[in-house]
Amino acid sequence: MKKTFVLVVLFILPLVAYLFFASGINNFGKLPVLTSQVADISEINPEYTFTDKITILGFLGNQPELKKGNVFNLNQKIYKPFFEFNDFQVIMLAAKGTEDKVREIREELSGFTDTRNWHFIFTSETQTRSLFTSLETNLDLDKDLGSSYVFIIDKDGQLRGRNEDEDEGMKYGFDATSVADLNNKMEDDVKIILAEYRLALKKNSAKREN
User: Fold this and answer.
1) Is the dihedral of CA 135, 91, 49, 143 positive or negative?
2) Angle in degrees, CA 17, 24, 192, rounded to 5
3) 31-53 pLDDT tens trace
4) Domains of the chain by residue range
5) What phi and psi values does residue 194 have, to the nearest 5 degrees?
6) Contact 171, 137 (CB under 8 A)
7) Confidence of residue 8 (pLDDT cuts 50, 70, 90)
8) Residues 81, 85: Cα–Cα separation, whole Å
9) What is the rounded CA–CA span in Å between residue 97 and residue 106?
10) Are 78 and 186 in contact (CB under 8 A)?
11) Which of 80, 138, 170, 189 gives the lowest tally of CB atoms within 10 Å of its CB?
């Protein structure tokens, strides 16, 4: 009896666990596309693009110093766990004329973070509103042309989010003032989209080998 139990623990349980996780990977659901074509950031600054990038997009507006806490929350909960993945980037829009304030924020970040995939782009009011409108969300910019929400843009320039969120129903963005929202929801969704692309790469590699 003991021998049978040991055999089950050593051989059968690991096999069952493997089959469970393998099945989960093969049937991995995609993160829903909520907006099929977001205006590309290259239309504002040709040095950057959403194409072939997994982008976290945010809006700091005219007073970026008021959203410094949001930046640090995002840095700790989302950027640090994922910045080493290929093609992952964070793009923050700030109003032209706020370069010095943003430089201070970036310098503070660089004191404890590798900021190579943090990008700050300075925009006019028209450019900011145009890009935000192209997200086609149920959210609005605040009076300073900023937002506490950040958004996931996939490699095809599509807005990803949740269409059956337990709290909001349609969830277009994630509240960077809320550590819980970043930690409990956004982190999971970034993991999903990264796993989605990794699985696609594995399938393409397997097809080439065959």
Assistant:
1) positive
2) 125
3) 999 999 999 999 999 999 999 99
4) 33-209
5) -65, -45
6) no
7) very low
8) 9
9) 16
10) yes
11) 138
Beta carbons within 10 angstroms of residue 201's beta carbon? 11
Q: What's the whole-model pTM score? A: 0.84
CA 22, CA 52: separation in Å to the nearest integer? 27
Superfamily for domain range 33-209: Glutaredoxin (3.40.30.10)
Measured CA to CA, the distance from residue 87 to residue 69 in angstroms comes to: 25
Three-state SS annotation for the chain: CHHHHHHHHHHHHHHHHHHHHHHHHHCCCCCCEEECCCCCHHHCCCCCCCCCCEEEEEEEECCHHHHHHHHHHHHHHHHHHHCCCCCEEEEEEEECCCHHHHHHHHHHHHCCCCCCCEEEEEECHHHHHHHHHHCCCCCCCCCCCCCCEEEEECCCCCEECEEEECCCEEECCEECCCHHHHHHHHHHHHHHHHHHHHHHHHHHHHHHHC
Look at residue 6 and tell me whether its pLDDT is greater than 50.
Answer: no
Rounded distance between C-alpha atoms, residue 150 and residue 155, angstroms: 16
Whether 9 has a pLDDT exceeding 70, the answer reads no
